Automatic annotation (TrEMBL):
Keywords: Cell membrane, Membrane, Transmembrane, Transmembrane helix. It is found in: Cell membrane. It comes from Oceanicoccus sagamiensis. The keyword Transmembrane applies. It holds the Pfam family LysE. The chain crosses the membrane at residues 6-28, 40-65, 71-92, 113-134, 154-174. This is Threonine transporter.
Amino acid sequence: MTIETGILFFTAILIFAVTPGPGVFAVLARSLAFGVHRSLAMIIGIVISDIVYLLMACKGLSYIAENWSQVFTIIRLAGAAYLIYLGWNIWNTPVTFYLDEKPTNQANDHIKSFLQGFLISASNPKVILFYLAFLPTFIDLSNLTGSDLLLMGFLTFAGLFLSLIIISTGAAAARQYFQSKSAIGRLNKTAGATMMGAGAFLASRQ
């Protein structure tokens, strides 16, 4: 991978990371409710999931998709069901959960947040399509070297993490405007509807 190709790839990752989707909205919602610190695990989960797709794309995800379509259908439907379930929970989350409650176990909270981020990104068709269709425009996967793979992984991690941290920081700074019960209630409904809509979209994909 040349320097020019690396810069273009990193720029594409930055743009891709801030494109509206379930992962971005989940980070926004969590950061608005809890701040940047308690959003880090979710951000890392999203980033790790994307890197897994990057590696799979480099190792022939398209071949697997073509020859194991039934497996991917199960994964897609399971991901859709999870997004709908998560959206329903957010929709029905009591306002007092965001305003009053504190987690009793920080470790469990971070693990749960990480898994949510990982599964949201893993179930997002935007991620799959990006790495399957867009990745070959930057590098010849048939001549991929180990150093190319490491560099792409690093650039992906840096680009996604930087973009999501900026989003999280901006949302956390705006928390003061979302402290009333009515504002938090609207946030719950919007986040829940977005998650459920993403799940319905994923389930409808062929």
